[in-house]
Write a structure and sequence with these properties.
With 704 residues, this protein is of the alpha/beta class. The chain has three domains: 28-265, Methane Monooxygenase Hydroxylase, Chain G, domain 1 (Up-down Bundle); 295-449, 2-Layer Sandwich (Alpha-Beta Plaits); 478-493 and 530-697, EAL domain (TIM Barrel), CATH 3.20.20. Helix content is 62%, strand content 13%. It is built from 24 helices and 16 strands. The chain has an eight-stranded mixed barrel with strand order 8-9-11-12-13-14-15-16, surrounded by four helices. The protein has a five-stranded mixed beta sheet with strand order 2-3-1-6-7, sandwiched between helices. The chain has a two-stranded antiparallel ribbon with strand order 4-5. The radius of gyration is 39 Å and the shape is flat. It starts with a helix and ends in a 19-residue tail after the last strand.
């Protein structure tokens, strides 16, 4: 009887498990189906909500972006249409389809209204862009002895200033203010028929602006009156209603599962037998996790975590060696990560064998991450010639062909040796010094490297740059540039200086590189330009400003400079931009675009330091530069070095044949100046004519 009962108990448990499994599969299928449908539908609804909000924002942005606004609106509409099309993959009710189509009709209306607003904004901007030139021509033709003409100039200037100060096209108060100003303008009686004609054109242009402003405001108001979001909410509401029915069915299945679950208790007898097996499996997983937490899975070496633990207990008379594979990122990019992993694995194996053969037993190898390996040696018992050992290893690595996937790959590595704690920080800092040298294979840390002193110096100059920007410490100094024919100062070059609170003057070689690293460089450029512009608004000479590739590709700096020329159009023809470090230019198309834009304002361009390093004559022609500024290293040697003189003569000859003017810098004495005159240089600059200093201290007029 006992055997019979036991067998039936097993049978019943088996039947209960089968029923439970079948019910669970059914329930799981339904739940997954519901979750998948719910997730898919909610994602699409959320995308639709996002696109709807995005359309409103895009329309507003489009009125700022102007011509680009059309494409931005079209892009957003494409996204809405894509989301709309994606609903077709779902089994939608007729009600949902109706609301969805209703939504699409509303957004199409928004699209058209948005484009109308963009068009109106473009028209208004066109009016604003024409007015400064008209005002400039008006000023040239006005008779200041005639009171009505002076009043006409004042009234038209008031309207222009009011428009230029306008940042919000939606401000309807501006319309009434400008209409009043236009009426005053219209009431002015002018005797000059040409000015009367100009007045009519002026008023007609302003009427175009006001009409477009009306269209702009009405279009935007209608955009935000259309309740496209309401249609989405109705779709969402309809979905929630249908979801209740599905949830009801799932609840019924859940009740069934609860009933079946009571039968599955019998299966516990069988599950208990698995506990022991599961425990063994858990122990195995735990050991694997422990191993992975301390060892690198690719090379089997101890990892960074283990290194930190070992360092805590390691004696202070240890030696640490950091080994880095040179240009490993380039290897990964060229051959792929699979090949890179094989290289790391093979280097690790060679390093293990090398350490076992030549290093003391109390030596530990680590993979510290990426392409960095570490060797920690306890040197209490014996002194080793680590320098020669490491050099031997590095040579063997560089002489090895790694055969991987049919490629014969050769690599090199660098090493940094240190006995100073913290080991990793001192070794890593030494490695950076080594990489800058490029010729050496290894480096030994010493206090003479002054690594941490350099870091402290970087912190010091970071503070100086930030303080100078906050406390008006960035100042332009000016050095005169003279015409070779007349020996008269015709322009100045603005050179940046950092003035400390105690009056100490710092030259750019001390702080410009730091400013680039801390992302403050563009603010120094903008400060220099603004202060120089303000000074030369009151002067007649031309102004040269240094500009680098980073400035020309920075949209904020470009916009800042353009705004200055919009406000002060008379400055453009007197400005020369000296392009620095042309060998660092990565995208010449962006440089050409910058030059073309500002040549339209009358600006000129010079290539600085021409003749040093890599001077590309072809790019000079493509840039359509106006000046070549001959590098000072050639000018200062032109008297004593015949080769330098030949190079200068070649550059001047090239410039004359291509219609360029030449500027020679570093002119320090009369002898150099005389030779440059004989060669035919157009302009000269240097300490012989004046050092960089505040403009109030520079010498005006002729050089004696």
């Amino acid at each position: 009887m006992i055997d019979f009962f036991s067998k039936n108990k097993i049978f019943l448990a088996f039947i209960a498990i089968l029923l439970f499994i079948l019910a669970s599969i059914l329930h799981s299928f339904k739940v997954n189906e519901y979750i998948h449908y719910n997730k898919a539908f909610q994602e699409k609804v959320e995308k639709l909500k996002y696109c709807d909000e995005k359309l409103n924002v895009t329309i507003l942005q489009g009125t700022i972006l102007l011509d680009r606004g059309y494409s931005e609106i079209d892009d957003t509409m494409d996204r809405i249409n894509n989301v709309y099309s994606s609903f077709e993959t779902l089994n939608l009710t007729e009600t949902k389809k109706f609301y969805l189509n209703e939504y699409l009709e509303i957004v199409k209306q928004k699209e058209q209204l948005g484009k109308d607003a963009v068009k109106a904004a473009i028209n208004m901007q066109n009016v604003i862009s024409q007015l400064p030139n008209m005002q400039f021509h008006l000023r040239e033709n006005i008779n200041f002895q005639d009171e009505s003409e002076k009043q006409f100039l004042f009234q038209s200037s008031s309207i222009l200033i009011r428009l230029l100060k306008t940042n919000d096209f939606k401000n309807s108060d501006i319309k009434y203010e400008i209409e009043s100003l236009i009426q005053n303008l219209n009431n002015i009686s002018l005797k000059n028929q040409q000015l009367n004609s100009f007045k009519n054109s002026y008023i007609e242009l302003y009427n175009v602006y006001l009409n477009n402003q009306q269209v702009y405001i009405q279009s935007l108001n209608k955009v935000f009156e259309l309740e496209s979001k309401h249609s989405i909410e109705l779709i969402d509401k309809e979905f929630l209603a249908s979801s209740k029915n599905i949830l009801g069915n799932l609840n019924s299945i859940s009740i069934l599962l609860v009933a079946i679950f009571t039968l599955t208790i019998i299966s516990i007898l069988f599950l208990l037998s698995k506990v022991k097996t599961d425990n063994k499996r858990l122990n195995s997983i735990t050991k694997t996790l422990e191993f992975n937490s301390k060892y690198d899975s690719l090379t089997g070496l101890m990892n960074r975590t283990s290194f930190n633990e070992v360092i805590k207990s390691n004696p202070k008379d240890a030696v640490f060696i950091l080994i880095n594979i040179d240009n490993f990122k380039d290897l990964n990019d060229f051959y792929g990560f699979d090949v890179g992993d094989v290289i790391l694995y093979k280097v690790a194996n060679r390093l293990k064998l090398f350490v076992i053969e030549f290093f003391p037993q109390d030596t530990t190898i680590f993979r510290l991450g990426g392409d960095d390996f570490g060797i920690l040696v306890n040197t209490r018992s014996k002194t080793f010639a680590f320098n020669s050992l490491i050099l031997n290893f590095l040579n063997k690595i560089s002489e090895t062909n790694f055969n991987i996937k049919g490629f014969k790959i050769r690599i090199t590595a660098s090493a940094s040796i240190t006995k100073k704690e913290p080991y990793l920080q001192t070794a890593d800092a030494s490695m950076k010094v080594l990489k800058q040298k490029k010729n050496d294979k290894y480096i030994v840390y010493s206090d003479e490297l002054k690594i941490f002193e350099n870091s402290n110096k970087n912190f010091e100059y970071t503070h100086k740059v930030i303080q100078a920007l906050e406390q008006n410490g960035i100042k332009p100094y000016f050095q005169p540039i003279v015409c070779a024919k007349t020996n008269k100062i015709i322009k100045y070059e603005a050179l940046v200086r950092l003035i400390e609170p105690d009056g100490t003057v710092l030259t750019p070689n001390l702080f410009l590189d730091i400013s680039k690293q801390i992302r403050e460089y563009k603010y120094i450029t903008q400060t220099m330009f603004l202060k120089s512009f303000n000074i030369f608004l009151e002067r007649d000479e031309e102004l040269s400003l240094n500009i680098g590739y980073e400035d020309m590709i920075d949209i904020d700096t470009e916009t800042f400079i353009e705004n200055q020329f919009i406000i002060f159009p008379e400055l453009g023809p007197r400005i020369t931009f000296e392009i620095l470090e042309t060998d660092s230019i990565e995208d010449y198309d962006k440089v050409y675009s910058f030059i073309t834009k500002f040549k339209a304002y009358g600006c000129k361009f010079a290539i600085d330091d021409f003749g040093s390093g890599y001077s590309n004559f072809e790019q000079v022609l493509k840039m359509k530069a106006d000046f070549l500024k001959i590098d000072g290293s050639l000018i200062k040697d032109v008297v004593k070095d015949p080769d330098a003189k030949i190079v200068v003569e070649t550059i001047v000859d090239f410039a004359k044949k291509t219609g360029l003017k030449t500027i020679a810098e570093f002119v320090s004495d009369a002898e150099i100046a005389k030779i440059l005159d004989e060669i035919g240089v157009d302009y000269k600059q240097g300490f012989y004519y004046g050092k960089p200093e505040p403009l109030s201290k520079t010498k005006d007029g002729l050089h004696e």
